[in-house]
Amino acid sequence: MILFAMAAGGGVSIGQLFMGGLIPGIILGIALMIMTAIIARKRNYPKGRVLSVKEIWKVTKDALLGLMTCIIIVGGVIFGWFTATESAAVAVVYAFIITFFVYREIPLRQFGNILRKSLRTIAMVMALIATASMFGWLLAYLKIPAMVTTALPNKIVILLLINVMCLILGCIMDMGPLILILTPILLPVATQLGMEPVQFGAMLILNLAIGLCTPPVGAALFAGCWGSSGSSSSKP
Predict the structure, then answer these.
(1) pLDDT tens digits, 118-139
(2) Phi, psi (deg, nearest 5) at residue 81
(3) Measuring CA to CA, how many Å separate 223 from each of 146, 167, 219?
(4) pLDDT at 235 over 70
(5) Closest CA to 209 of 21, 78, 69
(6) Measuring CA to CA, which residue among 153, 184, 181 is closest to residue 169?
(7) Of 117, 111, 218, 131, nearest to 177 (Cα)?
(8) Closest CA relative to residue 124, chosen from 166, 70, 180, 85
(9) Are 24 and 207 in contact (CB under 8 A)?
(10) Taking Cα atoms as reference points, which of 166, 169, 165, 171 lies closest to residue 217?
(11) What is the rounded radius of gyration, in angstroms, for the C-alpha atoms of the chain?
């Protein structure tokens, strides 16, 4: 959502985007849990061991410090404690302290390598933002959004086409670049139809999030499979 706000020109409230995505995100999570339960029962997957209250408390306590990074970013922006940039800076410093001095899962000598990888990622993102901004300016100059809304006067048809396109692209491409590429193209069309930027942002990101869980690529599926294989035992 921060990427969307940047790609939209900075005029969209990130706090409002976070709040606008709350209910769609909860609905998506519940839908995934329901589908998981149905498939698990249908295929008779083995049940995991039920944790005791003491084990639940221990797991929660161990994860709480790491989860505070998300709370700093989202809560800080929503409640107006930080701007998006300030919340990111505070979260990075906090994550650095927790990772290297509390959890101690990564040796401090890896810090330079982490910085190099971060710099490479930032360079790619900034290049995408620059080219997407130029492309968006060109579309506005050529009045492409107005032409699209004129060619397809039915608002429902246009919105359905946008949703279908976002779902398909989300299945085969990464979410970050797609937000930067699609926002300058589709946001003017959506505003021509009378949608608020926050409403369109929630719709765009929800569609792309569903694509993250959908083959043929399904980046979230890779992360889930890697995590489950890494934590599972070696027994068949």
Answers:
(1) 888 888 777 877 777 777 777 7
(2) -70, -35
(3) 40, 19, 7
(4) no
(5) 21
(6) 181
(7) 131
(8) 180
(9) no
(10) 171
(11) 21
Within 10 angstroms of residue 180's Cβ, the number of other Cβ atoms is: 24
Helices marked H in the chain — which ranges?
Answer: 2-7, 14-20, 22-42, 53-78, 84-97, 111-141, 144-151, 155-172, 175-192, 197-212, 219-231
- Contact in structure between 69 and 95 (CB atoms under 8 Å): yes
The mean of the pLDDT values for the chain is 83
Q: What are phi and psi of 212, to 5 degrees?
A: -65, -25
**pTM of the entire structure?**
0.70
Instruction: Dig out the tokens for 158 from the structure.
Output: 């246009």
* Residue 206, CA distances (Å) to 116, 122, 137, 167, 221 in order: 31, 24, 25, 9, 16
